[in-house]
Structures are given as C-alpha cells and as structure tokens.
C-alpha cells in the first residue's frame, strides 16, 4: 500500500515497513522516526548506516549481532530505540523487519 | 590425480560424496571426506526423542555406512583450512592437499554465548534439544517432571530448523495432555522475533494453533542472561520470564574450524554466493548446508536441494564452464502440530509459505500450510527417506531442487 511520507508516496506494508528500499531517504527516515517517538541524532544515524549495510550484504540481523558490531552496545541500542530496538531501527532504516520462515 | 576434499560427513557432506563419486572419473579424481564423529545423527529426530516418540536407535547410524566406495573416510578433528595454499591440517598434524574443497561443517549450538546458560541448571532444568545428549537428557527429565512453567525459548536467529522450537511447544501440549497433566503445565514460547509467526500468510493460517493449545507468547525478547538461582531469563530491555523447565535453542554458530581458518563471519558462517554456492573468497571452495551464510533456512531439506545444484556447478567448475546461479533458497519442511497431525511448508528466498498442494499441483497428496494426518505420516516417513534415499543421493520423485509455483495459492503480495 501507499503512504504519504515526507511529501512523497512511499510503498509500505501493513506494519508500515518500506517495501522498496530505493524509496528511502533521510527525510523519510526522520518522519518515520517521529511516528515512532524517536528523535534522530548522530548516534542513531550510525546505527541506521550499519543496518542498511547489513541489509545490502544480505546479512541477517539480530540484536546481539548489532551489539557485537562495535557500532553501538546493546544497552545503548535499547536507549536509542526504546522497547523494540531492532523493529524500530529497521523500520526507520527502510529495511524489512527480521523474519523467520513462517 | 586431482583431489576433492569434503569437510564434514553430515547431511550435506554425505550427499555430496554420493552425488560426486558416481560422476567423477575414479582415475582422475581422488575423493576424501573428513569428520570427527563416528555416528551420523538424524537431527530432525531430536525433536521426537524427548517425547519418547522415537527411540535413540532410530536417530543414529554409522557415518561409514553412507560413504560410498571409492571415497576415503578419515575420522579426525580438523585443525584449520589454509585456503591460500589449498591445504587442510588435521588435529594430529596430518596435511591434506586439495584441488577442490567442499565445506559441510554445519552449525551447532553455542550456549556459552549466553551468560548463565551453562550454569548450575544446565541439563538439570535448562535443556537444549539440538544435540543428541541434550535431547536424551530432556527425555529423562520429561519422564519424571511433575509440571510447572515450561518455557520454550529461542536465543537469536539464525538457528537450524527455525520451526523446531514451535513444534516442541505443540508436541509438549500433546504430551502433557496424554499424560493427563496438561493442567499442571503452563507453556510459554519466548522468541526474539515479533511473534511465533512472522509472515502474514502463516500468521493468518496458524494463529489458531496457539490459541487452541493454550500457548502463551512472549515476543521481542532478546536474552541477556539466564538467572539459574531465581530461575528466570532476562532480556536486554529488562523483561523477565520465569521458568521451572527451560527448553532453549541457544545461539547457533558455524564450526570453530571456520573461525580458526579466518573464513567466516562473526557467527563462523562462510560468506557464500547464494545462487551458485561457491565461497565468495575462494573460487575452488564450495559450501553446502548450515555452514554457509545463505539467507535460506538452515535445514536438511535446504542442503538436499543445494546438493543437486552444487553437483552441477562442481562439474561445470571442473570443465571450466561458468557456474549457474540457480539455487533459489528452496526449503520444504514438515511442522508437527501435535495429536498426530502436521503442517507442510514450501518456500524459497522470495516466496513465503502459502496454501496449496504438494508435490503434485492440484493433487497433493500433501496439503501446504494446513494441518493433516497425512502430513504427519509424511514427516514420519521422511526418516526412512532420509536414511535410504536422500543421503545416498537418490532423488525423491516429483520433488525438484528449485521451488515449483504450480498448485500453490500465490497472490500479488508486497514483500
């Protein structure tokens, strides 16, 4: 389905995740972040960059993997993206939420 | 004489030995396979062992039995792979040269990755069922357990057979019902994912199973530690879940050999081309099964489908022809739902599991994403197929390596 984000029409799924990564830009990220109650700082952007790089390389994400990446500690990851850090961070980064096979 | 070396005689390695021995000229290619174990375990059986559905003898056979004539079997631990010099050093110091290497060293649980998991409760009230030892110890525990809080838990993805813990929860419900003590057992399923089901089709079709069986779900739980004293697991966000019996799937990692050899990622999985199964770093190294970092499920069925494609690609590589990037991530899994029923799912890199029939379009006899007794019979029959056909490289009628879209109810879905 289509959603108006940062003045452009963006393809998203039922949960609001982008379905076309090429439509992502920083304005889109900031608007989604606002909806999630997150204000993006430099620390957030570093994490977003890391997540997008993993996505491009088709590396599955997990919280512990993010914690071991050297980009952010797990405690800080929770501080930056409270409640469900991976769910929120992937949504803001414009990449799919980690899923299992069913 | 050229040398083909296979590391690991599990599902993937054994299949490749069988596939390739009949294809490669014995006068041109010497084949060797190395494994530290003497026993080949039917790992899907580890799900049934705790519930006394399978006996130990049904899930293990000798590795030797499945290695074809004309392939040298060496029983040894592997020290390291020197990929730049095409050499593998074994634990005792023996060195094996190769022209072509197939890595099939698999994945295993790494409970030491989680603080407290290997603490005082390990194999007393904290169990895994991904090892023969763990599964058997859990069987003994369940036989005498008087009930309480049963927590079925996944530490982090990826894991081998991502549906196994869910099957474990379903089978627990049946098991305790049959023992007449279901009212004494509280079953909670704890996962780092958003819920038990993460794909829309499966969620819609299968949510009822959780309701029907009274299984509580705790999602988005990223374990930080096991507190053996207080008998609870704690997540990084501060959430806690208490247990009397914790059945966990710890972090899964590739072999330490891969780490020692500098060939893996941070979980020791080998970066591999997801279509051709060639290692990204070395063109004469191919990877099959759980050892790779492919974004496919870590499951025997995936290794099985990969084997057919890898066989073709290795023959192409030997002839100097370009490889085909043909593997589509195809997986095909039975999911036990308890009470003598099972589901069947069929999916690949791009398609989520949907409803339909399998393997014959419109006919079945197996139904996808729907519970049936036939599917359960299929799952039980599969053990025979595994030992007698799959490992030996005999193809299963009507089941193709790449996923067939016929007979399946696809609709245009936004991925």
Description:
The complex is a heterodimer of chains A (102) and B (415). Chain A is built from five helices and two strands; from the N terminus they run E-E-H-H-H-H-H. With 102 residues, chain A is mostly helical. Chain A has one domain (2-93). Chain A has a two-stranded antiparallel ribbon with strand order 1-2. Chain A is globular. Chain B has helices at residues 11-21, 132-144, 164-178, 200-213, 256-260, 300-319, 373-390; strands spanning 2-7, 29-35, 39-41, 60-62, 71-75, 78-82, 87-90, 95-97, 100-103, 107-109, 126-127, 148-154, 185-190, 215-218, 223-227, 232-235, 240-242, 245-249, 252-254, 285-287, 331-338, 341-347, 356-360, 364-368. Chain B has 415 residues and is α/β, with parallel strands linked by helices. In chain B, strand 21 and strand 22 form a beta hairpin. Chain B is built from seven helices and 24 strands. Chain B is globular. Helix content of chain B is 23%, strand content 27%. Chain B folds into three domains: 2-106 and 255-319, FAD/NAD(P)-binding domain, CATH 3.50.50; 111-251, FAD/NAD(P)-binding domain; 328-415, no CATH class. Chain A binds chain B through residues 1, 11, 13-14, 19, 58-60, 62-65, 68, 74-75, 77-78, 83-87, 96-102, and chain B through 113, 156-158, 162-163, 166, 192-194, 197-200, 202, 206, 220, 222, 224, 236-237, 251, 265-267, 274, 293, 295, 297, 331, 333, 335, 345, 347, 352-353, 414-415.
């Amino acid at each position: 389905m289509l959603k108006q984000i940062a003045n452009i029409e963006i393809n998203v799924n039922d949960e609001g995740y982008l379905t076309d990564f090429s439509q992502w830009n920083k304005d889109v990220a900031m608007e989604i972040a606002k909806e999630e109650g997150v204000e993006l700082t430099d620390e957030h952007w570093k994490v977003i960059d890391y997540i997008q790089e993993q996505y491009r390389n088709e590396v599955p994400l997990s919280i512990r993997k993010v914690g071991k990446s050297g980009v952010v500690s797990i405690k800080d990851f929770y501080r930056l993206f409270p409640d469900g850090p991976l769910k929120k961070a992937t949504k803001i980064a414009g990449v799919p939420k980690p899923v299992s096979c069913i | 004489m050229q040398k083909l070396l296979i590391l690991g005689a599990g599902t993937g390695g054994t299949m490749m030995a069988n596939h390739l021995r009949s294809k490669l000229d014995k006068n041109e290619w010497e084949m060797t396979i190395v494994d530290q174990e003497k026993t080949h375990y039917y790992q899907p059986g580890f799900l049934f062992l705790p519930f006394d559905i399978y006996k130990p003898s049904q899930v293990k056979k000798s590795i030797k039995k499945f290695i074809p004539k004309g392939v040298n079997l060496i029983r040894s631990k592997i020290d390291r792979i020197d990929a730049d010099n095409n050499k593998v050093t074994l634990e005792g110091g023996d060195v094996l040269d190769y022209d072509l290497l197939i890595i099939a060293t698999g994945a295993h649980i790494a409970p030491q990755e989680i603080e407290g998991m290997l603490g005082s409760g390990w194999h007393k009230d904290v169990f895994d069922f991904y090892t023969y030892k763990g599964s058997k110890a859990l069987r003994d525990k369940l036989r005498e357990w008087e009930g309480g809080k049963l927590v079925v838990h996944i530490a982090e993805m990826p894991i081998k057979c991502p549906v196994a813990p869910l099957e474990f929860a379903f089978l627990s419900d049946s098991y305790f019902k049959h023992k007449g003590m279901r009212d004494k057992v509280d079953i909670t399923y704890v996962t780092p994912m958003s819920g038990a089901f993460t794909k829309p089709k499966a969620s819609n079709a299968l949510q009822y199973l959780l309701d029907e069986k009274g299984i509580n779900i705790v999602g988005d739980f990223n374990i930080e530690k096991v507190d053996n004293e207080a008998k609870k697991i704690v997540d990084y966000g501060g959430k806690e879940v208490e247990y009397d019996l914790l059945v966990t799937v710890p972090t899964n990692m590739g072999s330490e050999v891969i780490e020692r050899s500098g060939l893996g990622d941070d979980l020791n999985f080998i970066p591999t081309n997801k279509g051709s199964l060639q290692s990204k770093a070395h063109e004469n190294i191919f990877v099959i099964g759980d050892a790779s970092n492919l974004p496919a499920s870590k499951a025997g069925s995936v290794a099985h489908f990969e084997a057919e494609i890898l066989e073709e690609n290795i023959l192409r590589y030997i002839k100097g022809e370009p490889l085909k990037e043909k593997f589509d991530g195809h997986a095909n899994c039975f999911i036990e739902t308890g009470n003598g029923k099972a589901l069947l799912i069929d999916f690949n890199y791009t398609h989520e599991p949907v409803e339909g029939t399998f393997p014959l379009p419109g006919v079945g006899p197996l139904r996808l994403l729907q519970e049936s007794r036939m599917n359960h019979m299929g799952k039980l029959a599969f053990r025979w197929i595994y030992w007698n056909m799959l490992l030996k490289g005999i193809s299963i009628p009507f089941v193709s390596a790449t996923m067939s879209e016929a007979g399946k109810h696809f609709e245009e879905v936004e991925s």
